Amino acid sequence: KITAEHKPTNVDAIVGRPGVVTVRVAEQTPGQVKVDDETWRAVLSPRAGGAREPGERVTVEAVDGVSLTVR
Fold first, then answer.
1. pTM of the predicted protein model
2. C-alpha span between 65 and 58 (Å, rounded)
3. Burial level of 61, CB count in 10 A (0-12/13-18/19+)?
4. 17, 54, 57, 58: which has the highest count of C-beta atoms within 10 A?
5. Contact criterion met (CB below 8 Å) for 59 and 14
6. Nearest 5 degrees, angle CA 47-CA 8-CA 59?
7. 32 in Cβ contact with 40 (< 8 Å)
C-alpha cells in the first residue's frame, strides 16, 4: 500500500498564509489583498473584529472561488 503525505496545492496552499491589504476590507464592503505576488478579492471574516486598512497584514482563513476570507 502506498501512502502519500497530503501537500496543499494551488488554492488549498493559500489558506493560513499572510497577506497585505491593498484596498480597504470592511464587514459589508469587499476589498483587495495581496498574497505573495497575487492580488485577490477579499471579504472580512465575521471574527475579524473590524475593518482592515491598506498596509495592514491579514491571514487567509478560507477561499471561495476567486475571493479570500481574511482576518
1. 0.83
2. 19
3. middle
4. 58
5. no
6. 25
7. yes
In the block, cell 497530503 appears at 6
Q: How far apart are CA 38 and CA 27, in angstroms?
A: 22
Query: How far is CA 20 from its chain centroid?
Result: 9
- Rounded Cα gap, residues 69 and 63, in angstroms: 6
Contacts of 48 (CB under 8 A, 6+ apart): 70, 71
* Cell numbers for 62: 478560507
| Tens-digit pLDDT profile for residues 23-68 | 999 999 999 999 999 999 999 999 888 999 999 999 999 999 999 9
